[in-house]
Design brief:
5 helices; about 80% helix; Serine Threonine Protein Phosphatase 5, Tetratricopeptide repeat; globular
Length: about 110
């Protein structure tokens, strides 16, 4: 299903669907596809602008990159997400990303 082409679908639903698809793909080992979808979601969310979706996709991508051992890029994506979450005052997400960054610091 091409969620972006569905006319009755709202912008938040499309972005959420992209994230869910990317996360599902990452859980079955299709990491490259997952990364590509999240990158697309980040770009489209940024251009809308839809900062919450952008930050959530950045955070998800950061987590995926960390799991595959790309700690530098993972940290960068998480820090980018954290900056947006701070701007939005999204405390729940701030705590989650800070926890991921702390875990990353423990591993590197």
């Amino acid at each position: 299903m091409n969620v972006a082409a569905t006319s009755s679908t709202s912008v938040p639903e499309v972005q959420d669907a992209l994230r869910v698809r990317a996360l599902a793909l990452s859980h079955v080992g299709r990491i490259e596809e997952s990364e590509q979808i999240l990158e697309r979601s980040i770009r489209s969310s940024h251009s809308m602008p839809y900062p919450l979706a952008e930050a959530r996709a950045l955070s998800d991508l950061g987590e995926i990159l960390m799991r595959k051992g790309d700690f530098g890029q993972g940290r960068t994506r998480l820090q980018d997400a954290l900056g947006i979450f701070h701007r939005l005052g999204a405390k729940v997400y701030i705590g989650q990303v800070e926890q991921s960054l702390a875990h990353l610091s423990d591993e590197t």
